Amino acid sequence: MSNRIRPYAWGSRTALAELLGEPTPSAHPQAELWIGAHPGDPSRLVGSGSSAGSAPQSLVDRIAGDPAGQLGSEAVDQFGTRLPFLLKVLAAAEPLSLQAHPTMEQAKAGFAAEERAGIDINAAGRNYKDASHKPELICALTEFHALCGFRDPQQTVQLLAELGCPELERYLGLLSGQPDENGTRALFSSIISMPSAALDPLLDAVLAACVRRVKDGSEFSAEYRTTLELGERYPGDPGVLAALLMNRVTLQPDQALYLGAGNLHAYLSGTGVEIMANSDNVLRGGLTPKHVDVPELMRVLDFSVGPVPVINPVPDGPGVWRYPTPAKEFALSKLLPDDAPDGVLLDHSGPQVVLVTAGTAQLHGAAAAPLTVPKGRTAWIPADESGVRITGAATVFLATDGL
Ligand SMILES: [Zn+2]
């Protein structure tokens, strides 16, 4: 496959170039490598199989020409005639926006309502680009930092109180008076909809308090430091204050984070393999110059208290580590083919995408010669190509549907 890179300003100038074996630093930020059949930037098929010697073909066109053969009848029955997932390598040098994704029901209703209202699909104020939910899983390739979900309100009360910031008192009262889901909702809601005249002086006071606490040393130093970094990057943005209510998470390589509907999150820095349902439905809550629709965000947000959804890979046969999630649209596994005596058989009956992140892998399929897939490269295995085996001293990510 030949894949496109999205050059968003928060992207790294080294991570994707290094993965792809290109000179570093790259001339422009490289944020996301898109691997799949999203109409915005579909992968193209080059080289092997039926397209050998012919011009590269968009994966969108390949699938449209034979949905059942490419995706398998089960996936077509469940998700229609498009690839249900999008795989990415994401390389963040700077924080991404604070965001959440809708449930399937919210997406269907929101999309229908915006269509009825005649809002252009590309309009800046458009929330729902399609009628699908967008669960996502990010698996760390390097140490990876993120904000994910709301912290236990009792702890947030402690964290805010420790700032010793008088300007924050009345807001802190919203949470200390009811340290639960409702208190979190009330406090977040007042932060996110605060007019600049109130927000700007409050932000100044909170950031000054963060500087003092980081200097003195505090059990919340990492959280305060993150707030300072966000304040520098997004002056006057309510997301800087909202970040104080959220879990600050550090993933070690191979650990993953599952982001279900309603989970407020922001990636801060690091490189990871990301897989998601093939949707573009994002409701932003700040840390962005883009459109923020507060009422719609409040409707989809989940304020419940629960553990941070860190997923550790579980062994699933020789050389195979699976990331268990409830998503039906996708499944992600990490393969170490050399750890299995005969490599790993890729016997899933739906669409399969192979991404090599270290070493070199060989794919043994129907063709006489194996296909060599070096680091940074990817391969598409259609549903009707059964019995492909992968070997080699390589680290490989395997993306399939979750059926
Ligand atoms: Zn997201």
TrEMBL record:
Cofactor note: Binds 1 zinc ion per subunit.
SUPFAM superfamilies documented for this protein: RmlC-like cupins (SSF51182)
Alphabetized Gene3D superfamilies for the sequence: Jelly Rolls, Phosphomannose Isomerase, domain 2
UniProt keyword terms in alphabetical order: Isomerase, Metal-binding, Zinc
Binding residues for Zn(2+): 99, 101, 136, 265
Listed EC numbers: 5.3.1.8
Biological process, per Gene Ontology: carbohydrate metabolic process; GDP-mannose biosynthetic process
Cofactor: Zn(2+)
Domain Phosphomannose isomerase type I catalytic: 3-151
Gene Ontology molecular function: mannose-6-phosphate isomerase activity; zinc ion binding
Pfam families linked to this entry: PMI_typeI_cat
GO cellular component: cytosol
Similarity-based family: Belongs to the mannose-6-phosphate isomerase type 1 family.
Protein name: mannose-6-phosphate isomerase
Native organism: Nakamurella aerolata
Gene: manA
